[in-house]
Task: inverse folding
């Protein structure tokens, strides 16, 4: 015999008997009742309220300082100064990690590689920012240069996931070298939320990739691309030696 609260909840909602009518009134009162807050208690209450958000932040920072950062640094080949982590990056596979100075990881970051290449390498330059839920698949080489900003939910991959030839996919063969093409995101580039960067792509210096774009070909320096597949939608301006700006002329892809 199994006991279920569903019949009781149903009768409470209907309130068809005197008992359940009283029970319904008690329930409604308890759902909307509020305790009065004396004026003298408000400073203490405000301190408690602020503390409930500060304490987890302080605790998380201590966890990063004494556990997450040291352990992750041991996994890397080299780590620069002032690495900032919010959570432990999830690294699967044998990717070699080289991280520069002042790099920030904004949340959960996944780095993965298969057993296809002897020394798959991920290099992250100085002052780069890697957002929450970013996934980097590195089977050969991914380079993220200085001052690059990568927003949350982006995916970067130097490999499509399977060999190009159908016969090799059916046979379960390992991919050929040409199936894995290095990805480079050059200095000062900005990758928008949810963008997908595919194999063999180079994002030019200062380039901007729009949110949720799928980048299948190179992005010219200092240009904005968007769409699926991503195309040049805007040309940016750069300062010259006198401080004035000039527009870069780039033909839309």
Result:
């Amino acid at each position: 015999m199994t006991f279920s609260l569903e019949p009781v909840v149903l009768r409470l909602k209907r309130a068809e008997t005197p008992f359940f009518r009283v029970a319904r009134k008690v329930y409604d009162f308890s759902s909307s009742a509020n305790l009065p807050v004396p004026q003298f208690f408000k400073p203490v209450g405000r301190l408690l309220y602020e503390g409930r958000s500060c304490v987890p932040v302080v605790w998380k920072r201590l966890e990063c300082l004494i556990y997450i950062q040291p352990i992750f640094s041991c996994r890397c080949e080299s780590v620069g100064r002032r690495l900032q982590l919010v959570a432990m990056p999830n690294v699967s596979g044998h990717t070699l990690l080289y991280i520069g100075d002042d790099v920030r990881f904004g949340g959960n970051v996944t780095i993965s590689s298969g057993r296809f290449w002897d020394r798959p390498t991920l290099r992250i330059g100085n002052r780069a920012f890697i957002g929450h839920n970013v996934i980097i698949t590195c089977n050969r080489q991914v380079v993220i240069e200085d001052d690059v900003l990568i927003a949350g939910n982006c995916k970067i991959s130097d490999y499509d996931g399977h060999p190009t030839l159908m016969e090799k996919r059916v046979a379960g063969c390992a991919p050929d070298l040409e199936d894995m093409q290095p990805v480079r995101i050059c200095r000062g580039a900005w990758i928008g939320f949810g963008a997908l960067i595919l194999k063999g792509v180079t994002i030019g210096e200062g380039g901007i990739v729009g949110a949720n774009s799928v980048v299948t070909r190179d992005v010219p320096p200092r240009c904005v691309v968007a769409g699926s597949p991503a195309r040049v939608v805007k040309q940016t301006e750069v300062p010259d030696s006198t401080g004035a700006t000039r527009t870069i002329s780039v033909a839309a892809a």
In short: Confidence is low (pLDDT under 50) at residues 249-253. Residues 76-236 form a domain with the UDP N-Acetylglucosamine Acyltransferase; domain 1 fold (CATH 2.160.10.10). Residues 42-75 form the longest helix (34 residues). The two ends are 69 Å apart (CA to CA).
